[in-house]
Design goal:
The complex is a heterodimer.
Chain A lengths: L1 H11 L2 H4 L16 H13 L6 E2 L3 E2 L11 H10 L13 H16 L8 H12 L1
Antiparallel strand pairs in A: 1-2
Helix pairs in contact in A: 3-5, 4-5, 4-6, 5-6
Chain B lengths: L10 H8 L3 H15 L19 E5 L3 H12 L3 E5 L12 E2 L3 E3 L5 E3 L7 E2 L6 E2 L3 H10 L3 E4 L7 E3 L9 E2 H21 L9 H15 L11 H7 L1 E3 L10 E2 L5 H7 L6 H4 L7 E4 L4 H11 L3 E2 L2 E8 L4 E7 L5 E7 L1 E4 L3 H4 L3 E2 L3 H8 L3 E2 L1 E8 L3 H4 L6 E5 L5 E4 L11 E9 L2 H8 L2 H12 L6 H4 E8 L10 E2 L3 H12 L5 E3 L11 H20 L2
Parallel strand pairs in B: 1-2, 1-18, 2-14, 9-22, 15-19, 18-27
Antiparallel strand pairs in B: 3-6, 4-5, 7-13, 8-13, 9-10, 11-12, 15-16, 16-17, 20-26, 21-24, 21-25, 22-23
Helix pairs in contact in B: 1-2, 3-10, 3-18, 5-6, 12-17
The chains are: A mainly alpha, B alpha/beta.
Chain lengths: 131, 533
């Protein structure tokens, strides 16, 4: 499966097409290689591909322009602690994945590049959440 | 033990998950081990004695919890009104049939192209025989049931990297696994290795029992022969006339089974939650919700979206938008309110309750789940492979292939397979993030590894990813023991004039029985308060 999908990814070429190429992790945790891929294949399940969120009987908040995302600590907290009905998805990611995802989300949706996440910070937060 | 998919699974869970059939089985085993499998506490219809003196109750949500509450309160003399987001009753009790249109969050629109009589149960699909409340309401509402096949010995266990990717019959893995283990134990017993643990008298009985259990031969060996074939089936089954003589097949070696880890799925057939007999409503699980809906008639107002819940010492008020008239708002008032909205929705809504309940409402993550229905032009699983109902497990992302438990063995009959059922874990999110078309293509590609006939016989498919279901935003509340200790009582306690009910307010999360029992417990306590002098 992975091989076939990876090939499909290569042949698809363009980034736009990649956004629609399925990705499947091998186990219980996420295998996505970087922040963009994590966003597209995990976060977008609820927050949608462009970060616009979605509304039905309830709502998934849109990420675009949400100023809270400027705070790296806020994102670390949400991803490792969960928020409302959102599970603590960061616990199924490595520190490298978390860092890349957080920096991707901040840059993409609020244009923040200062105060980037680091593996030290996510690891420390992870330890704190475990207590 | 912890079923939270975002914490490291326990060692046992990990083993199960790595083993064949992985995810689904692992999750359910974890749930079972958390005590969710306790026997239903239902002991017959609820008795609400005493005059409610015209009290009114506003019920939010026409799922099984809300409709159970409405049904029982109305019988007890209450005035009830139910507000429902969808245009149909049932909530997660839902069957998708040909002609139905489904638009998920994000806007992807699917029209179900199944033939008449074919369906997919996107949510609950089976009822354990010990879910007494669901069964009793089916009886009282006239919902016909038929067996749901959980264990079909002819179905498969499959891993791409085990046995060269060839799916193995559950019958053979099950028989050869217990045969091999029984032979080992018999050997140990005969060598005296168990003398410390087994008395001399019991030793003989143990050997006899192992022979019986494993299909061992006279010398306590598990090998090709009539004893083993009685369990594992035959290379050539007994026939009639000149070709009658059966031929025994060669058992799979214990080492091959152990390393394949296909044994990992066998536990799901033994667990209390899935023991025979299980049931399904004839025509789809949604028949239960439909029956409740008919019973309640215009007590349910459909197509309204609740946006705010407020209360004071005199009563409760819910503000809602009318979805048919493009969002004009109105309010409904009552003396009391039973809110059955999923916490995924309630946690982001203005709801006037005290801090303990508010914190409980916000504390629970919702697990994702995905189901995919695939219609095929012929029932190749029946015609070619003699699989009548039941489930095959694979450790591919699709996890399971569920066969229809109805309409067996008819000439030229089509059928709908459950082509994927994911509950929790990375793949459930990844499937949700795909377009409906991609979900179906991946299910076809992976399913074809188990049934190559997929490629020729596929007609049409539909998928429901629960995190994108507009009326729930998730599949079910994902409790942990720590969260229960902190929040469960606050979630279930009546806050002023507002009480919550639903699967999330039960020890049977994601089960319909939990939703109904929660509603019954809620109306009992509410009623006691209403009639109190």
């Amino acid at each position: 499966m992975r091989v076939a999908l990876t090939l499909a990814f290569w042949f698809a070429g363009a980034a736009a097409a990649a956004a629609q190429t399925p990705f499947l992790s091998k186990g219980w945790t996420f295998d996505e290689p970087n922040g963009a891929s994590l966003y597209t294949h995990v976060c977008a399940a609820c927050h949608q591909a462009g970060g616009e969120g979605a509304t039905g009987a309830g709502a998934y908040p849109g990420l675009k322009g949400d100023e809270r995302l400027a705070s790296t600590d806020y994102l670390i907290g949400v991803l490792l602690g969960g928020q409302h009905a959102m599970p603590a998805l960061g616990r199924a990611m490595s520190d490298a994945q978390l860092v890349d995802l957080i920096n991707y989300v901040r840059q993409t949706f609020v244009g923040a590049i200062d105060d980037p996440a680091t593996a030290e910070r996510t690891a420390a937060a992870r330890a704190a959440f475990k207590r | 033990m912890d079923k939270d998919p975002f914490r490291m699974p326990s060692r046992r869970a990990l083993l199960t998950q790595i083993g064949a059939g992985g995810g689904g089985a692992a999750v359910y085993r974890l749930m079972t081990s958390l005590g969710f499998a306790a026997e239903s506490t239902y002991r017959g219809p609820v008795s609400l004695e005493g005059d409610p003196r015209g009290a009114s109750v506003l019920i939010l949500g026409a799922g099984l919890a809300g409709m159970t509450a409405a049904y029982e309160l109305r019988r007890a003399g209450y005035r009830v009104q139910v507000l429902e987001y969808n245009a149909r009753p049932g909530g997660r009790n839902w069957t998708v049939r040909g002609g139905d249109t489904y638009v998920e969050l994000g806007g992807a629109r699917q029209v179900c192209r199944f033939d008449d009589g074919q369906y997919l149960n996107p949510g609950p699909w089976r009822i354990p025989h010990h879910h007494y409340a669901v069964l009793d309401y089916c009886r009282r509402l006239g919902v016909a049931l038929e067996p749901f096949v959980q264990l079909n010995h002819a179905a498969y266990l499959h891993k791409p990297d085990a046995f060269g990717g060839a799916p193995q019959r559950i019958r053979e893995i099950k028989a050869d696994y217990s045969g091999g283990v029984a032979e080992l134990l018999a050997k140990a017993t005969n060598k005296g290795a168990l003398d410390d643990a087994v008395t001399k008298e019991d030793r003989e009985i143990l050997l006899e029992a192992l022979r019986d259990l494993g299909g061992l031969d006279r010398d306590y060996r598990y090998r090709a022969g009539p004893d083993a074939s009685e369990f594992r089936g035959y290379e050539r089954p007994p026939g009639g006339g000149l070709s009658a003589r059966p031929e025994d097949g060669e058992p799979i070696g214990l080492s091959d089974i152990l390393t394949s880890r296909l044994w990992g799925s066998l536990g799901s057939f033994l667990s209390y939650e899935f023991q025979t007999t299980m049931f399904q409503p004839v025509g789809g699980m949604g028949r239960i919700g439909e029956a409740f809906g008919r019973e309640l008639g215009d007590a349910i107002r459909y197509n309204v979206k609740v946006v705010e819940i407020a209360q004071d010492e005199r009563g409760v008020e819910a503000r809602f938008e009318d979805r048919e008239t493009g969002g004009s708002t109105a309010t409904a008032r009552a003396d009391w309110c039973i809110c059955t909205l999923p916490l995924s929705i309630l946690s982001r809504m203005r709801c006037q309750v005290g801090a303990p309940m508010r914190e409980a409402i916000s504390a629970l993550p919702y697990a994702p789940a995905v189901k995919i229905g695939l219609q095929f032009s012929r029932r190749f699983w029946e015609e070619d492979e003699h699989i009548y109902g039941g489930i095959s497990y694979t450790d591919q992302a699709i996890r399971q292939i569920g066969y229809p438990n109805y309409g067996f063995n008819r000439q030229g009959s089509k059928g709908v397979l459950l082509g994927a059922y994911l509950f929790g874990g990375a793949n459930a999110y990844e499937f949700t993030a795909m377009s409906p078309e991609d979900r179906v293509s991946v299910a076809l590609e992976q399913g074809a590894k188990v049934h190559p006939q997929y490629t020729q016989a596929f007609e049409t498919g539909i998928s429901v990813a629960w995190a994108r279901v507009p009326f729930t935003l998730g599949c079910a509340a994902d409790w942990t023991e720590a969260k229960r200790a902190e929040h469960y009582e606050n979630l279930c306690a009546i806050d002023g004039r507002i009480a919550l009910a639903g699967e999330h307010a039960s020890y049977l999360p994601a089960w319909q029985e939990g939703a109904i029992l929660s509603a019954l417990d809620c109306v009992r306590r509410l009623h006691a308060r209403v009639i109190a002098p």
